[in-house]
Design a protein that fits this description.
6-stranded mixed β-sheet, Udp-n-acetylmuramoylalanyl-d-glutamate--2,6- Diaminopimelate Ligase, Chain: A, domain 1, 26% strand, 270 residues, 8 helices, 5-stranded mixed β-sheet
């Protein structure tokens, strides 16, 4: 497969016109390679993930998070310098699907909504209107961050938490705000979504799930919030994206590999 053909397929789910102006979605590190046989997908373009992908024989790397948001010289040793060195030596490109993926309301960013079978799902923060790939009518649809929707049946809070632990593979998280007796309306923004707490409250969410909640953001009044961490929600999102790409590429001689990451945060007890 030609590299531009693979990028066209990626951008059916993560179209660049949805990316934020400050973002650097798209090609991060180019190569002279023209044919692609083995793309590898990961959350973070860290040296250990890059090495694992290259060791598996990958010839195209797709990460959610960009290598850098600001172009800069590799003027000192470190992860940035190491990743560039690895990619240049292997002549393997690195592509980022960051907010271009986050803002597509039909993409894998809504995997948690599917797990809870949410109804009447809508955006938490609308950025604008755009023609989204896969919509044959090619009308313009809202795009933006986060989602909110209703569970088919309200769940007692403890039962909701048990299901959340099951689908995320995580049984501990930070929480704040008064716990609801039951959860009928759920809001979520994978990654760092603390700024959408007010939108979740206005949408009538009983629970808002995100990562990287900041102290002052939770003081001003919000629904009950669960901070699962930046890693977990987006790691599963990228795993789903890898599976989607594998299905879309199944007719060709293409092998798709997902490179698992690890949460940099752990809970310690003294």
């Amino acid at each position: 497969m030609k590299i531009y053909e693979l990028i066209n397929i990626i951008e059916k789910t993560a179209p660049l016109n949805l990316a934020e102006s400050w973002d650097k979605s798209g090609m991060q590190v180019a190569s002279f390679r023209e044919e692609i046989f083995h793309p590898a997908i990961m959350l973070d373009p860290l040296p250990r993930n890059i090495r694992q992908a290259l060791d598996s024989g990958a010839d195209f790397l797709l990460a959610h998070h960009p290598l850098t948001l600001q172009p800069r010289f590799p003027d000192s040793p470190g992860d940035y310098h190491t990743v560039l060195s690895l990619l240049f030596k292997a002549d393997v490109p690195l592509y980022s699907a960051h907010t271009s993926l986050d803002c597509n309301p039909s993409g894998p960013v809504r995997w948690l909504a599917e797990e809870f079978n949410l109804r009447s799902t809508r955006l938490l923060a609308e950025n604008g209107l755009a023609a989204l790939p896969g919509r044959e009518e090619q009308k313009k649809y809202p795009f933006g961050f986060g989602f909110v929707g209703d569970l088919p049946l309200a769940l007692p809070y403890a039962e909701f938490c048990r299901k959340l632990a099951l689908v995320t593979g995580k049984n501990a998280w930070r929480s704040c705000g008064a716990k609801p007796a039951q959860v009928r309306r759920l809001a979520c923004c994978p990654g760092s979504g603390g700024d959408l707490a007010a939108a979740a409250l206005a949408a009538g969410a009983d629970v808002f799930i995100t990562g990287d909640l900041r102290y002052h953001a939770v003081l001003s009044g919000a629904p009950h919030m669960l901070d699962l961490g930046h890693f977990q929600l987006e790691e599963i999102m990228m795993r789903r994206f890898a599976a989607d790409l594998d299905a879309m590429l199944s007719t060709g001689n293409i092998e798709v590999t997902f490179i698992s990451g690890s949460d940099p945060f752990i809970f310690e007890r003294s």
